Amino acid sequence: MSATEAARRLEGRLVALGVCGSVAAYKSIELVRLLRAEGAEVVVLMTKAATAFAGTLAFQALSGHAVETDVLGLLPDNRIGHIVVADTADVIVVAPATARWLGAMANGIADDPLTAACLASTAPVVFAPAMDGDMWTHPATRANVARLRDVFGYALVPPETGSLASGQSGIGRLAELPTIVDAVVAAAGDRPVRRPDALDRPPRTAAPRDPDLAGRHIVVSAGGTAEPIDPVRFIGNRSTGKMGVAIAEAALARGARVTIVAGRVEVPLPAEANVIHAETTAQMREAVLAATFEDHADALVMAAAVADFRPRQTADHKLVRGGSLTLELESTEDILAEVGRRAAETAGQSKPVIVGFAAETGSLDRAPDKLRRKGADFLVANDVSEPGSGFGTDTNRVVILAADGTRDDLPLLTKREVAERLLDRLAGSLDARDARAHTVPPRTES
Fold first, then answer.
1. Active-site residue numbers?
2. Which residues have C-beta within 8 Å of that of residue 198, sequence separation ≥ 6?
3. Is 148 helix (H, G, I), strand (E, B) or coil?
4. How far is it between the farthest Cα atoms of the chain?
5. Is residue 207 exposed (0-12), middle (13-18) or buried (19+ Cβ within 10 Å)?
6. Three-class SS of residue 226?
7. What is the DSSP string of 30-73?
8. How far is CA 439 from CA 263, 349, 377, 403, in A?
9. What is the DSSP letter of 87?
Protein backbone atom coordinates (compact mmCIF):
# COMPACT_ATOMS: atom_id res chain seq x y z
CA MET A 1 0.00 0.00 0.00
CA SER A 2 1.37 3.41 -0.96
CA ALA A 3 1.66 6.35 1.45
CA THR A 4 -1.20 8.02 -0.42
CA GLU A 5 -3.47 4.99 -0.01
CA ALA A 6 -2.54 4.66 3.66
CA ALA A 7 -3.65 8.28 4.24
CA ARG A 8 -7.17 7.62 2.91
CA ARG A 9 -9.02 8.01 6.18
CA LEU A 10 -12.42 6.80 4.97
CA GLU A 11 -11.22 3.80 2.99
CA GLY A 12 -14.04 1.30 2.42
CA ARG A 13 -16.71 3.38 4.14
CA LEU A 14 -20.04 4.45 2.68
CA VAL A 15 -20.79 8.12 3.34
CA ALA A 16 -24.30 9.45 2.71
CA LEU A 17 -24.20 13.13 1.75
CA GLY A 18 -27.40 15.07 2.30
CA VAL A 19 -27.82 18.26 0.30
CA CYS A 20 -30.46 20.87 1.19
CA GLY A 21 -31.84 23.88 -0.68
CA SER A 22 -29.16 26.50 -0.14
CA VAL A 23 -26.98 28.53 -2.49
CA ALA A 24 -24.09 26.65 -0.88
CA ALA A 25 -25.35 23.42 -2.49
CA TYR A 26 -22.86 23.92 -5.31
CA LYS A 27 -20.05 23.39 -2.80
CA SER A 28 -21.39 19.91 -2.05
CA ILE A 29 -20.28 18.78 -5.51
CA GLU A 30 -16.68 19.43 -4.49
CA LEU A 31 -17.38 17.76 -1.13
CA VAL A 32 -18.19 14.53 -2.99
CA ARG A 33 -14.76 14.67 -4.61
CA LEU A 34 -12.99 15.29 -1.29
CA LEU A 35 -14.80 12.42 0.42
CA ARG A 36 -13.95 10.06 -2.41
CA ALA A 37 -10.33 11.18 -2.27
CA GLU A 38 -10.37 9.96 1.34
CA GLY A 39 -11.44 6.52 0.09
CA ALA A 40 -15.16 6.78 0.79
CA GLU A 41 -17.96 5.51 -1.39
CA VAL A 42 -20.50 8.33 -1.55
CA VAL A 43 -24.23 8.31 -2.17
CA VAL A 44 -26.14 11.58 -2.33
CA LEU A 45 -29.62 12.39 -1.01
CA MET A 46 -31.21 15.71 -2.01
CA THR A 47 -34.28 17.60 -0.87
CA LYS A 48 -36.59 18.95 -3.55
CA ALA A 49 -35.34 22.50 -3.00
CA ALA A 50 -31.73 21.34 -3.32
CA THR A 51 -32.32 20.16 -6.89
CA ALA A 52 -33.28 23.75 -7.81
CA PHE A 53 -29.82 24.95 -6.74
CA ALA A 54 -27.72 22.03 -8.03
CA GLY A 55 -28.69 19.36 -10.54
CA THR A 56 -28.37 15.66 -9.88
CA LEU A 57 -26.19 14.85 -12.88
CA ALA A 58 -22.92 16.16 -11.44
CA PHE A 59 -23.52 14.36 -8.15
CA GLN A 60 -24.26 11.10 -9.95
CA ALA A 61 -21.22 11.39 -12.20
CA LEU A 62 -18.85 12.06 -9.29
CA SER A 63 -20.35 9.58 -6.83
CA GLY A 64 -21.10 6.71 -9.21
CA HIS A 65 -24.54 6.34 -7.61
CA ALA A 66 -28.01 7.47 -8.57
CA VAL A 67 -29.11 10.44 -6.45
CA GLU A 68 -31.97 9.85 -4.02
CA THR A 69 -34.54 12.64 -4.49
CA ASP A 70 -37.84 10.87 -3.78
CA VAL A 71 -38.83 9.50 -0.37
CA LEU A 72 -40.88 6.88 -2.24
CA GLY A 73 -38.10 6.06 -4.69
CA LEU A 74 -37.17 2.45 -5.38
CA LEU A 75 -33.85 1.00 -6.50
CA PRO A 76 -33.77 -1.18 -9.66
CA ASP A 77 -34.14 -4.29 -7.47
CA ASN A 78 -37.24 -2.73 -5.81
CA ARG A 79 -35.54 -2.00 -2.49
CA ILE A 80 -36.51 1.34 -0.92
CA GLY A 81 -33.68 3.72 -1.74
CA HIS A 82 -33.42 5.79 1.44
CA ILE A 83 -33.80 2.70 3.63
CA VAL A 84 -30.88 0.98 1.91
CA VAL A 85 -28.80 4.12 2.51
CA ALA A 86 -29.91 4.25 6.14
CA ASP A 87 -28.97 0.61 6.71
CA THR A 88 -25.56 0.72 5.02
CA ALA A 89 -24.10 4.22 5.53
CA ASP A 90 -21.20 4.50 7.96
CA VAL A 91 -21.75 8.26 8.34
CA ILE A 92 -24.44 10.66 7.18
CA VAL A 93 -23.29 14.24 6.58
CA VAL A 94 -25.75 17.03 5.80
CA ALA A 95 -24.00 19.91 4.06
CA PRO A 96 -25.46 22.41 3.59
CA ALA A 97 -28.13 21.97 6.27
CA THR A 98 -30.84 24.63 5.95
CA ALA A 99 -33.07 26.08 8.65
CA ARG A 100 -35.97 24.12 7.20
CA TRP A 101 -34.10 20.83 7.42
CA LEU A 102 -32.98 21.57 11.00
CA GLY A 103 -36.62 22.11 11.98
CA ALA A 104 -37.91 19.05 10.13
CA MET A 105 -35.18 16.80 11.53
CA ALA A 106 -35.54 18.09 15.09
CA ASN A 107 -39.24 17.25 14.96
CA GLY A 108 -39.04 14.02 12.95
CA ILE A 109 -40.92 15.29 9.89
CA ALA A 110 -39.71 12.88 7.21
CA ASP A 111 -41.12 14.19 3.94
CA ASP A 112 -37.87 13.92 1.98
CA PRO A 113 -35.35 11.06 1.50
CA LEU A 114 -32.66 12.79 3.55
CA THR A 115 -34.72 13.26 6.73
CA ALA A 116 -36.26 9.81 6.30
CA ALA A 117 -32.81 8.21 6.00
CA CYS A 118 -31.58 9.98 9.14
CA LEU A 119 -34.64 8.81 11.07
CA ALA A 120 -34.17 5.23 9.88
CA SER A 121 -30.43 5.03 10.51
CA THR A 122 -28.21 4.30 13.50
CA ALA A 123 -25.20 5.79 11.72
CA PRO A 124 -23.59 8.93 13.20
CA VAL A 125 -24.82 12.16 11.65
CA VAL A 126 -22.77 15.28 10.95
CA PHE A 127 -24.53 18.50 9.98
CA ALA A 128 -23.06 21.73 8.63
CA PRO A 129 -25.60 24.56 8.51
CA ALA A 130 -25.58 27.37 5.95
CA MET A 131 -28.10 30.24 5.93
CA ASP A 132 -28.59 33.96 6.41
CA GLY A 133 -27.12 35.33 9.64
CA ASP A 134 -30.45 36.36 11.17
CA MET A 135 -31.88 32.92 10.41
CA TRP A 136 -28.94 31.29 12.15
CA THR A 137 -29.33 33.41 15.29
CA HIS A 138 -33.14 33.05 15.48
CA PRO A 139 -34.28 31.26 18.67
CA ALA A 140 -36.14 28.59 16.64
CA THR A 141 -32.99 27.69 14.71
CA ARG A 142 -30.86 27.72 17.87
CA ALA A 143 -33.36 25.42 19.61
CA ASN A 144 -33.39 22.98 16.71
CA VAL A 145 -29.59 22.91 16.58
CA ALA A 146 -29.40 22.29 20.30
CA ARG A 147 -31.88 19.41 20.04
CA LEU A 148 -29.96 17.75 17.22
CA ARG A 149 -26.62 18.20 18.97
CA ASP A 150 -27.50 17.59 22.61
CA VAL A 151 -30.44 15.17 22.39
CA PHE A 152 -29.83 13.31 19.13
CA GLY A 153 -26.05 13.33 19.48
CA TYR A 154 -25.44 14.72 15.99
CA ALA A 155 -22.08 16.40 15.36
CA LEU A 156 -22.32 20.11 14.51
CA VAL A 157 -19.89 21.82 12.15
CA PRO A 158 -20.79 25.47 12.89
CA PRO A 159 -21.16 27.99 10.09
CA GLU A 160 -18.43 30.57 9.59
CA THR A 161 -18.38 34.33 9.16
CA GLY A 162 -18.08 35.70 5.65
CA SER A 163 -19.99 36.91 2.61
CA LEU A 164 -23.56 35.58 2.43
CA ALA A 165 -25.95 35.08 -0.48
CA SER A 166 -27.97 38.08 0.72
CA GLY A 167 -25.01 40.32 -0.05
CA GLN A 168 -24.38 40.93 3.63
CA SER A 169 -21.40 39.75 5.61
CA GLY A 170 -21.83 37.82 8.82
CA ILE A 171 -22.19 34.39 10.35
CA GLY A 172 -24.02 31.71 8.34
CA ARG A 173 -21.49 30.77 5.69
CA LEU A 174 -20.96 27.02 5.14
CA ALA A 175 -17.85 25.78 6.94
CA GLU A 176 -14.77 25.12 4.85
CA LEU A 177 -15.02 21.75 3.13
CA PRO A 178 -11.82 20.25 4.67
CA THR A 179 -13.28 21.04 8.09
CA ILE A 180 -16.44 19.12 7.19
CA VAL A 181 -14.38 16.18 5.92
CA ASP A 182 -12.44 16.12 9.20
CA ALA A 183 -15.74 15.99 11.10
CA VAL A 184 -16.90 13.04 8.99
CA VAL A 185 -13.64 11.21 9.70
CA ALA A 186 -14.02 11.89 13.43
CA ALA A 187 -17.61 10.64 13.39
CA ALA A 188 -16.59 7.39 11.70
CA GLY A 189 -13.82 6.95 14.24
CA ASP A 190 -12.56 3.40 14.57
CA ARG A 191 -15.98 1.80 14.11
CA PRO A 192 -15.97 -1.24 11.81
CA VAL A 193 -17.46 -0.74 8.34
CA ARG A 194 -21.18 -1.46 8.70
CA ARG A 195 -21.92 -3.21 5.41
CA PRO A 196 -18.77 -3.85 3.35
CA ASP A 197 -20.59 -6.11 0.86
CA ALA A 198 -21.36 -4.12 -2.29
CA LEU A 199 -24.57 -6.11 -2.78
CA ASP A 200 -25.98 -4.71 0.48
CA ARG A 201 -25.25 -1.12 -0.51
CA PRO A 202 -27.03 1.04 -3.08
CA PRO A 203 -26.06 -0.22 -6.55
CA ARG A 204 -23.51 1.73 -8.55
CA THR A 205 -24.58 3.32 -11.78
CA ALA A 206 -22.87 2.17 -14.92
CA ALA A 207 -19.87 4.35 -15.65
CA PRO A 208 -20.08 6.26 -18.93
CA ARG A 209 -18.37 4.24 -21.65
CA ASP A 210 -16.67 5.22 -24.84
CA PRO A 211 -18.81 4.32 -27.86
CA ASP A 212 -16.37 1.57 -28.82
CA LEU A 213 -19.15 -0.45 -30.45
CA ALA A 214 -20.53 2.41 -32.55
CA GLY A 215 -21.37 1.17 -36.02
CA ARG A 216 -21.36 -2.46 -34.90
CA HIS A 217 -24.33 -4.80 -35.16
CA ILE A 218 -24.51 -7.12 -32.16
CA VAL A 219 -27.01 -9.99 -31.96
CA VAL A 220 -27.86 -11.20 -28.46
CA SER A 221 -30.04 -14.18 -27.65
CA ALA A 222 -31.76 -14.04 -24.27
CA GLY A 223 -34.06 -16.10 -22.09
CA GLY A 224 -35.04 -19.74 -22.28
CA THR A 225 -36.71 -21.76 -24.99
CA ALA A 226 -39.93 -23.68 -24.46
CA GLU A 227 -40.58 -27.00 -26.22
CA PRO A 228 -44.33 -27.79 -26.30
CA ILE A 229 -45.74 -31.01 -24.94
CA ASP A 230 -49.29 -29.99 -25.80
CA PRO A 231 -51.00 -26.60 -26.36
CA VAL A 232 -50.71 -25.86 -22.61
CA ARG A 233 -47.55 -27.51 -21.29
CA PHE A 234 -43.92 -27.28 -22.33
CA ILE A 235 -40.40 -28.34 -21.41
CA GLY A 236 -38.40 -25.30 -20.36
CA ASN A 237 -35.73 -24.09 -18.00
CA ARG A 238 -35.19 -21.50 -15.27
CA SER A 239 -33.63 -18.77 -17.43
CA THR A 240 -35.12 -15.29 -16.92
CA GLY A 241 -33.18 -13.46 -19.63
CA LYS A 242 -31.45 -11.10 -17.17
CA MET A 243 -27.94 -11.84 -18.41
CA GLY A 244 -28.83 -11.46 -22.08
CA VAL A 245 -30.73 -8.23 -21.47
CA ALA A 246 -27.80 -6.84 -19.43
CA ILE A 247 -25.50 -7.53 -22.39
CA ALA A 248 -27.93 -5.92 -24.83
CA GLU A 249 -28.30 -2.80 -22.66
CA ALA A 250 -24.54 -2.50 -22.22
CA ALA A 251 -23.97 -2.87 -25.98
CA LEU A 252 -26.57 -0.19 -26.72
CA ALA A 253 -24.87 2.15 -24.24
CA ARG A 254 -21.61 1.62 -26.12
CA GLY A 255 -23.14 2.64 -29.43
CA ALA A 256 -24.02 -0.70 -31.00
CA ARG A 257 -27.06 -1.55 -33.06
CA VAL A 258 -28.55 -4.48 -31.15
CA THR A 259 -30.87 -7.27 -32.21
CA ILE A 260 -32.31 -9.37 -29.39
CA VAL A 261 -33.56 -12.86 -30.22
CA ALA A 262 -35.80 -13.35 -27.21
CA GLY A 263 -37.11 -16.62 -25.90
CA ARG A 264 -39.15 -16.66 -22.70
CA VAL A 265 -37.92 -13.69 -20.65
CA GLU A 266 -39.06 -12.25 -17.33
CA VAL A 267 -37.45 -8.83 -17.58
CA PRO A 268 -38.27 -5.81 -19.79
CA LEU A 269 -36.49 -5.67 -23.12
CA PRO A 270 -34.77 -2.39 -24.09
CA ALA A 271 -36.93 -0.33 -26.41
CA GLU A 272 -33.90 0.75 -28.46
CA ALA A 273 -33.18 -2.81 -29.58
CA ASN A 274 -34.71 -4.69 -32.50
CA VAL A 275 -36.51 -7.61 -30.86
CA ILE A 276 -37.28 -10.92 -32.56
CA HIS A 277 -39.40 -13.28 -30.49
CA ALA A 278 -38.48 -16.96 -30.82
CA GLU A 279 -40.02 -19.26 -28.25
CA THR A 280 -38.83 -22.68 -29.42
CA THR A 281 -35.31 -23.82 -30.24
CA ALA A 282 -36.22 -24.24 -33.91
CA GLN A 283 -37.57 -20.70 -34.05
CA MET A 284 -34.50 -19.36 -32.26
CA ARG A 285 -32.18 -21.16 -34.68
CA GLU A 286 -33.91 -19.61 -37.68
CA ALA A 287 -33.89 -16.13 -36.12
CA VAL A 288 -30.26 -16.31 -34.96
CA LEU A 289 -28.95 -17.53 -38.32
CA ALA A 290 -30.87 -14.84 -40.19
CA ALA A 291 -29.83 -12.01 -37.87
CA THR A 292 -26.20 -13.12 -37.77
CA PHE A 293 -25.50 -13.98 -41.40
CA GLU A 294 -28.23 -12.44 -43.55
CA ASP A 295 -28.17 -9.16 -41.62
CA HIS A 296 -24.36 -9.26 -41.44
CA ALA A 297 -23.89 -9.02 -37.68
CA ASP A 298 -20.45 -8.21 -36.30
CA ALA A 299 -20.99 -10.51 -33.34
CA LEU A 300 -23.40 -13.00 -31.84
CA VAL A 301 -23.69 -13.44 -28.07
CA MET A 302 -25.63 -16.64 -27.38
CA ALA A 303 -26.72 -15.89 -23.81
CA ALA A 304 -30.02 -17.77 -24.19
CA ALA A 305 -30.55 -21.02 -22.33
CA VAL A 306 -31.52 -23.22 -25.26
CA ALA A 307 -33.32 -26.46 -24.45
CA ASP A 308 -31.24 -29.56 -25.23
CA PHE A 309 -34.28 -31.82 -25.71
CA ARG A 310 -37.87 -31.60 -26.94
CA PRO A 311 -40.75 -34.07 -27.15
CA ARG A 312 -40.51 -36.15 -30.31
CA GLN A 313 -44.26 -35.71 -30.74
CA THR A 314 -46.45 -32.80 -29.63
CA ALA A 315 -50.11 -33.36 -28.81
CA ASP A 316 -52.55 -31.08 -30.64
CA HIS A 317 -54.90 -31.05 -27.64
CA LYS A 318 -54.46 -30.70 -23.89
CA LEU A 319 -53.47 -34.02 -22.34
CA VAL A 320 -55.82 -35.22 -19.62
CA ARG A 321 -54.36 -35.99 -16.22
CA GLY A 322 -54.66 -39.59 -15.09
CA GLY A 323 -52.26 -42.49 -14.86
CA SER A 324 -48.67 -42.05 -16.04
CA LEU A 325 -47.28 -40.17 -18.98
CA THR A 326 -44.21 -41.17 -20.96
CA LEU A 327 -42.47 -38.61 -23.13
CA GLU A 328 -40.00 -39.62 -25.80
CA LEU A 329 -37.44 -36.86 -26.21
CA GLU A 330 -35.13 -35.99 -29.06
CA SER A 331 -32.17 -33.63 -29.20
CA THR A 332 -32.76 -30.10 -30.38
CA GLU A 333 -30.62 -28.22 -32.90
CA ASP A 334 -27.18 -27.16 -31.63
CA ILE A 335 -27.45 -23.50 -32.62
CA LEU A 336 -24.05 -22.44 -31.28
CA ALA A 337 -22.18 -25.24 -33.09
CA GLU A 338 -23.95 -24.48 -36.37
CA VAL A 339 -23.16 -20.79 -36.07
CA GLY A 340 -19.54 -21.65 -35.23
CA ARG A 341 -19.21 -23.78 -38.37
CA ARG A 342 -20.69 -21.12 -40.62
CA ALA A 343 -18.56 -18.39 -39.07
CA ALA A 344 -15.42 -20.45 -39.70
CA GLU A 345 -16.28 -20.47 -43.39
CA THR A 346 -16.51 -16.66 -43.48
CA ALA A 347 -13.45 -14.51 -44.06
CA GLY A 348 -12.28 -10.97 -43.33
CA GLN A 349 -14.52 -8.34 -41.79
CA SER A 350 -17.60 -10.41 -42.62
CA LYS A 351 -16.61 -13.06 -40.05
CA PRO A 352 -18.74 -12.56 -36.94
CA VAL A 353 -17.24 -12.96 -33.47
CA ILE A 354 -19.11 -15.75 -31.69
CA VAL A 355 -19.68 -15.82 -27.92
CA GLY A 356 -21.28 -18.83 -26.27
CA PHE A 357 -22.51 -19.42 -22.73
CA ALA A 358 -22.20 -22.59 -20.67
CA ALA A 359 -24.33 -23.07 -17.58
CA GLU A 360 -22.75 -25.87 -15.54
CA THR A 361 -23.30 -27.35 -12.08
CA GLY A 362 -20.52 -28.22 -9.68
CA SER A 363 -17.60 -27.89 -12.08
CA LEU A 364 -16.49 -25.94 -15.14
CA ASP A 365 -14.14 -28.71 -16.33
CA ARG A 366 -16.16 -29.30 -19.51
CA ALA A 367 -16.08 -25.66 -20.60
CA PRO A 368 -12.73 -25.64 -22.51
CA ASP A 369 -13.79 -28.66 -24.58
CA LYS A 370 -17.16 -27.05 -25.26
CA LEU A 371 -15.42 -23.90 -26.50
CA ARG A 372 -13.38 -25.99 -28.94
CA ARG A 373 -16.27 -28.16 -30.14
CA LYS A 374 -18.64 -25.25 -30.70
CA GLY A 375 -16.11 -23.23 -32.69
CA ALA A 376 -16.77 -20.10 -30.62
CA ASP A 377 -14.32 -17.25 -30.10
CA PHE A 378 -15.31 -16.89 -26.45
CA LEU A 379 -17.21 -19.03 -23.96
CA VAL A 380 -18.71 -17.60 -20.77
CA ALA A 381 -19.06 -20.38 -18.21
CA ASN A 382 -20.66 -20.26 -14.79
CA ASP A 383 -21.75 -22.67 -12.08
CA VAL A 384 -25.49 -22.08 -11.71
CA SER A 385 -25.56 -24.04 -8.44
CA GLU A 386 -23.34 -21.42 -6.77
CA PRO A 387 -25.26 -18.88 -4.63
CA GLY A 388 -25.63 -15.59 -6.48
CA SER A 389 -24.60 -17.10 -9.79
CA GLY A 390 -27.69 -18.97 -10.93
CA PHE A 391 -30.80 -18.21 -12.92
CA GLY A 392 -32.85 -15.20 -11.85
CA THR A 393 -30.14 -13.55 -9.74
CA ASP A 394 -28.86 -10.01 -10.27
CA THR A 395 -25.26 -11.21 -9.98
CA ASN A 396 -23.04 -13.75 -11.67
CA ARG A 397 -19.60 -15.26 -11.22
CA VAL A 398 -18.21 -16.31 -14.59
CA VAL A 399 -15.09 -17.48 -16.34
CA ILE A 400 -14.46 -16.10 -19.83
CA LEU A 401 -12.53 -18.56 -21.98
CA ALA A 402 -11.07 -17.47 -25.32
CA ALA A 403 -10.09 -19.51 -28.36
CA ASP A 404 -6.55 -18.16 -28.05
CA GLY A 405 -6.21 -20.00 -24.73
CA THR A 406 -6.60 -17.02 -22.39
CA ARG A 407 -8.88 -17.23 -19.40
CA ASP A 408 -10.49 -14.53 -17.20
CA ASP A 409 -11.81 -15.67 -13.83
CA LEU A 410 -14.11 -12.87 -12.72
CA PRO A 411 -15.30 -12.34 -9.14
CA LEU A 412 -18.98 -12.18 -8.22
CA LEU A 413 -20.27 -9.13 -10.10
CA THR A 414 -23.60 -7.66 -11.11
CA LYS A 415 -24.77 -8.97 -14.46
CA ARG A 416 -24.28 -5.52 -15.97
CA GLU A 417 -20.65 -5.54 -14.80
CA VAL A 418 -20.18 -9.02 -16.28
CA ALA A 419 -21.65 -7.69 -19.53
CA GLU A 420 -19.18 -4.79 -19.57
CA ARG A 421 -16.20 -7.10 -18.99
CA LEU A 422 -17.38 -9.38 -21.78
CA LEU A 423 -17.93 -6.49 -24.18
CA ASP A 424 -14.44 -5.20 -23.42
CA ARG A 425 -13.11 -8.49 -24.81
CA LEU A 426 -15.59 -8.47 -27.69
CA ALA A 427 -14.73 -4.90 -28.75
CA GLY A 428 -11.02 -5.76 -28.73
CA SER A 429 -11.61 -8.87 -30.79
CA LEU A 430 -13.61 -6.93 -33.39
CA ASP A 431 -10.89 -4.30 -33.68
CA ALA A 432 -8.27 -7.03 -34.15
CA ARG A 433 -10.44 -8.69 -36.81
CA ASP A 434 -10.75 -5.45 -38.73
CA ALA A 435 -7.03 -4.77 -38.47
CA ARG A 436 -6.23 -8.19 -39.92
CA ALA A 437 -8.68 -7.65 -42.78
CA HIS A 438 -6.92 -4.41 -43.74
CA THR A 439 -3.41 -5.78 -43.53
CA VAL A 440 -1.87 -6.05 -47.00
CA PRO A 441 0.54 -9.01 -47.35
CA PRO A 442 4.08 -7.89 -48.16
CA ARG A 443 4.97 -8.04 -51.86
CA THR A 444 7.48 -10.72 -52.80
CA GLU A 445 9.94 -10.40 -55.65
CA SER A 446 9.92 -13.14 -58.30
1. 237
2. 204
3. helix
4. 99
5. exposed
6. coil
7. HHHHHHHHTT-EEEEEE-HHHHHHS-HHHHHHHHSB--B--TT-
8. 40, 12, 21, 22
9. H
375, 354 Cβ separation under 8 angstroms: yes
Which pTM does this prediction carry? 0.59
Domains in the chain (CATH in brackets) are 9-188 (3.40.50.1950), 217-313+328-437 (3.40.50.10300)
Each residue's pLDDT tens digit in the chain (446 positions)?
334 444 789 999 999 999 999 999 999 999 999 999 999 999 999 999 999 999 898 898 889 899 999 999 988 778 999 999 999 999 999 999 999 999 999 999 999 999 999 999 999 999 999 999 899 999 999 999 999 999 999 999 999 998 776 677 789 899 999 999 999 999 999 999 999 998 899 998 766 677 899 999 999 999 999 999 999 999 988 899 999 999 999 999 899 999 999 999 999 999 999 999 999 999 999 999 999 999 999 999 999 999 989 999 999 999 988 878 889 999 999 999 999 999 999 877 789 999 999 988 888 888 999 999 999 999 999 988 888 787 888 888 899 999 999 999 998 888 888 999 999 999 999 999 998 877 655 554 44
Look at the chain and count its residues: 446
